[in-house]
Amino acid sequence: MKTMPKTNFLAGASMLATLLAAGPLHAETTLSVVTYGGAFENAVQEAYLKPYAKATGTEFSLEAYDGGLAKLAAMVQANNTSWDLIDLESNDAVAGCDEGLLMPLDESILGDTSDFIPGSIGDCAVASMIWSTVFAYDKEALATGPTLISDFFDTDKFPGKRGLRKSPKGTLEWALLADGVSKDKVYDVLATKKGLDRAFRQLDAIKQDIIWWESGAQAPQLLADGAVVMTQAYNGRIHDSVKNDGSAFVTVWDGQIYDYEWWGVPAGAPNAEEAFEFIAYASRADVTSQLSRYISYAPPRKNALPLIEKDILEDLPTADANFKNAVQIDVDFWVDNFDVINKRFQVWLAR
Amino acid sequence: MNETIPTPEGGLAAPDALNDAERLQAYRRVKRQESRKALLLAAPLLLFLLITFIAPIGTLLLRSVQNPEVPLALPEATKLLQHWDEAAMPDADIYAAMAQDLVQASKQGKLGRVARRMNFYNPAMRSLLLKTARKLKRDSRDDLQAALLASDSRWGDKEIWRVLKRAGQSPTPDYLLNAVDSYVDKTGSVASLPPEESVYLAAFSRTIWISTSVTLLCLLLAYPVAWLLANLPARQGRKLMLLVIIPFWTSLLVRTTAWYVLLQPNGVINSLLSGLGLVSQPIPLVFNRTGVLIGMTHIMLPFMILAIYSVMKGISPVYLRAAQSLGAKPLTAFIRVYVPQTLAGVGAGCFLVFVLSLGYYITPALLGGAGDEMISQLISIQTNQQLNWGLAGALSAYLVIFTAIFYFIFNRLVGIDRLRFG
Amino acid sequence: MKSHYWSRLERWSARWVRVHTAVVLFFLIAPILIIIPLSFNTSTYFSYPMDGVSLRWYQAALFDDQWQRALLNSLGIGFASTLLATILGTLAALGLTRPGFPLRGLIMPLLISPMIIPIVVVAAGFYYIFAPFGLVDSYLGVILAHTVLGTPFVVITVCAGLQSFDHSLTRAASGLGATPWVCFRRVTLPLITPSVATGAIFAFATSFDEVIVVLFIGGAEQRTVPRQMWSGIRDQIDPSILAVATLLILFVLALYGCASWLSNRHRNEMP
Fold it and tell me: Which of A5, A273, B246, B327 stands 20 to 30 A from A291 (CA)?
């Protein structure tokens, strides 16, 4: 107890010192990289940035953002882009390209692209990884857990609360899958008024049992707190919780909805050339295979897979056993229809 | 006018040495000078607010009626469409102009913004426009009408053209209509969205409902507290007042965090209740309306107490005693004599709480659930996520007008000069 | 009989008012007091009984780069916007309280309106108009917006201070030959300093507690303490947020102490 004031004082003093010692800016090229932050940022740093910095001397300044194109649009509009490289969600990568907020990508910088998974190279962006929306349960709380997506909607078989992301994206696809729609037909059905009604009807059945979450970190938290018996989650978050916190969470891959994450260069980026060089580097099979060591997201090219250790491979969304009933998110469908469907979703939520 | 008045020569003249007209003129000049000096002192702030406050809000509100995207990116087609009567299909010239404009806009990187704009009219428009532009760029035929029709059969649909024509009109009522869940339909009359898509009217009424509830809750809780604090001996009153002042000064985020921690399913209150054996399942206190009302009432309550207190403090007990000694029953005397004297404070408190609640964002966002979104949150979503700035402007316009009406009424009834802090 | 009945009602209501007040005051203060001990908890849970006492969450918060930067940002933005708001607001109040001020009934509500208009609207408007000038994601943008929000407080408190101001003093000073500037510096300013300082403290507290503007027009560089708390609550809440909250409570209490000391020195409206 006696040391307490001292630690306190030391804490204060060292903080003051840090505050005063605002470092000078570096003179050489510093790539400004903007990501969603958190575990993915750490993985990017370990897998790509550190080795690249060592090899080329390039410095990186990392920034976190909350997604969305608003800030980027403001910067581009002001001719004042300060970002060089952004980590983008699919819909932002598509809309950002359409709206001239991203620089067009010259595919040739990637070299031989024949082993890229189809759809992983866009007009302005290249996929950085594959991530997936899955659901998970705690084995300590539920000895015989759910195995199918229909179990998520079956409150008789598995009573208790379910965690779901407060978004129609993914949620409606699941509702249809659980209602027996085959994975290839999900978006065709969802595009019709009847299909949309059907999805909402399916959700109605479990509405009372849903706890909605909004940020990715909340999902494992809900499960750990015992607030839900199973929850929708990003596969990386669950894996992270098992690996680092020693939790007994089990991922259910049935009905997983996978999507790409993208690298893009903003229009007017001060170091665009270097940014594209970095993208080319980070997309190399031998480099991109490194990412999965730090976070359980899969590389977007086939040649990278053999370079990954078997036990890591098993936990990736693209592993054969996990991929059987996987749906790829239809970005175009959501860019077109998000506004209208989300309105309906919000009304449904509030009812 | 018995004062001496400075003459233009600078000397002092005796009042009767000037005739009335000259005196009046001199008086007015001095007055004008004084006015100008006074105004000059306020000028920097006025100018500052004009640039950083009035202009931004004005621009935002203007956005709600502007429709710049389509005319800017598709200039020729927009111009021609305005003369189209919507009876027959558009003629070949319009088709040609549209085809040329689409290719041009796509090359200049302007099409994406048009596509986003058009998608707010019809969720199929975005992909239609982008797909058409891509196909047209590869199409080398000279008959542009045929090329356009070949790219997608929907170009033969009159509805597509009608919507494009509407989107080319500025000023437009469309955003203001959308913000109350309405739109202009095919026949040109205003129609309402189906109930399952009506988000905004519900959000407006929810916002008003929450604000009213918070105001009433605060009034109910505050009035007796203010009365007791105002009537306690000064020292004691000041001490207890600290319990109002400390929360008042404590950061909004801190207080919201505190409630978040308290109300969680496994938080302080629920673990206390289950520890006492009162509940077996945690009761849902947060991420629902209960959480919003508790949090907002806690944050607004000090405003109400302080507003009522400051008026009660100035009320002399003589009136109440006089009423009672004249035979009024205590309760009657209280209601008929005391309460009316406190109405100014009640008005100021209610106004402040209600108006501040209307624009609330942080507390409902953190403590509210799926069905508790207030208008401010929707404005934020439209600005930052949907990039639908026209709609954000329209929602803001309603919110600002509503706030301004209450502000005006308050200023008339109570007077803005009565607002005091702390 | 009747009077007996009424006095009983009276006694009963007096007791009821006391109980009611006690409950309401408890409701006001309890949440703030309850989280303070929890910030010293050893475990990550937000409930009592506590597992033990430690300073780990304080350490976690104080040594965290993001919190440090947030604190630095909050202080910097707070001071800059307070300085601007105080100068502009005091000048305006001096003008407003002069007898000949034109259109006072129109201008006064206008100057106060930043306090009334929903901040989301101010922030969104700011975003649209200043994006083309590169003021989004910049310190200057946040400082200017916070200045807007702070000025009404300065105007109101300084106007209130000037209402009790004896204008014959300045007239006497200028009658004795003082220039307007000397008159202001030597006579007016010393007398209104307490209310100017009170207004400044309010302006600072406003900036220091503001999130919405920062959410709209601040980037990762401009994260302030409330902004950091916002994402803390939304993403992953851990007790270090309570440590920061506790420090903020102490800080703001100190600010209040300053304000009330000032107002005691200068008879003011501060309760």
Answer: A273
CATH architecture classification, B200-418: Orthogonal Bundle (1.10)
Same-domain status, A167 and A223: yes
- Asked whether the beta carbons of A37 and C228 are under 8 A apart, the reply is no
Confirm whether A18 is domain-assigned: no
Q: Does B261 touch chain C if contact means CB atoms closer than 8 Å?
A: yes
A74 chain-C contacts, CB cut-off 8 A: 127, 131, 136-137
DSSP code for B3: S
Cα gap A247→A238, rounded to integer Å: 9
Residue A269 pLDDT: 94
Q: Residue A278 to residues A109, A267, A296, C175: CA-CA distances in angstroms?
A: 10, 16, 22, 75
- Assembly ipTM: 0.88
Q: Is A189 left (phi over 0), alpha (psi -120 to 50) or beta?
A: alpha
CATH code (residue C73):
1.10.3720.10
Q: Is residue A319 in some structural domain?
A: no
- Nearest residue in A to C135, CA atom: A78
Domain presence at residue C60: no
Does A338 lie in the same domain as A277? Answer: no
Task: Give the domain range for residue A41.
Answer: 29-130+260-313
Q: In terms of domains, do A243 and A281 share one?
A: no
Is A287 a domain residue? yes
Quickly state the pLDDT bin for C4 (edges 50, 70, 90).
low
156-195 of B, contacting A, C-beta below 8 A? 195
What confidence tens digit (pLDDT) does each residue in C48-63 have? 777 788 898 899 888 8
> What was the pLDDT predicted at B17?
58
Which of A124-128, A155-159, C11-15, C156-160 has the weakest average pLDDT?
Answer: C11-15
Facing residue for C129 by CB, picked from B31, B41, B56: B56
Interface of B with A in 14-33 (CB under 8 A): none
Same domain, A251 and A231: yes
The series of mean pLDDT values per 10 residues for chain A, 351 residues long, is 39 43 51 84 91 92 81 82 92 89 93 90 94 94 92 94 92 96 95 95 93 84 87 91 87 95 95 95 93 91 90 89 92 88 89 78
CATH code for position A52: 3.40.190.10
Residues A115 and A169 in one domain: no
* Shared domain check, A269 and A338: no
Binding partners of A (≥3 Cβ pairs within 8 A)? B, C
Per CB-CB distance under 8 Å, the chain A contacts of B197 are 340, 343-344, 347
C242 belongs to a structural domain: yes
Q: Which string of DSSP letters, residue by residue, matches B209-237?
A: HHHHHHHHHHHHHHHHHHHHHHHS-HHHH
Interface of B with C in 281-300 (CB under 8 A): 298
Residue A2 lies in a domain: no
The β-bridge partners of A86 are A34, A264
Asked if C236 has any chain A CB less than 8 Å from its own CB, the reply is yes
Using CB atoms, pick whichever of A73, A337, A349 lies closest to residue B371. A349
**Banded pLDDT at C127 (limits 50, 70, 90):** confident
Which among B41, B45, B229, B238 is the top mutation candidate for probing chain C, defined by the most C β-carbons within 10 Å of its own β-carbon? B45
User: How many whole angstroms separate alpha carbon B245 and alpha carbon B240?
Assistant: 9
In a domain, C93, yes or no: yes
Query: Does C153 sit within 8 Å of B57, measured CB to CB?
Result: no
Q: Which residues of A touch C133 (CB under 8 A)?
A: 78
Number of domains comprising chain A: 2
C200 touches chain B (CB under 8 A): no
Residue range(s) defining the domain that contains residue C91: 65-265
**CB distance from C220 to chain A under 8 Å?**
yes
Residue ranges of the alpha helices (H) in B196-338?
A: 200-231, 234-249, 252-263, 268-275, 289-313, 318-325, 330-333
Structural domains counted in chain C? 1
Domain shared by A107 and A245, yes or no:
no
pLDDT at C86: 97
Q: Which residues pair with A260 in a beta bridge?
A: A130
- Residue C59: closest CA among chain A residues belongs to which residue? A11
User: In this complex, is the C-beta atom of B327 within 8 Å of any C-beta atom belonging to chain C?
Assistant: no
Residue C3 lies in a domain: no
Using DSSP's 3-state secondary structure scheme, residue B6 falls into: strand
Q: Position of tokens 């018995």? A: B2
| Residue A149 shares a structural domain with residue A164 | yes
- For chain B of 422 residues, list the mean pLDDT of each consecutive stretch of 10: 46 60 88 88 95 94 93 93 91 93 88 89 89 87 90 91 92 94 91 90 95 97 95 89 90 91 86 88 87 96 93 86 82 86 91 93 89 92 87 96 90 72 49
- Contact: A99, B116; criterion CB under 8 Å: yes
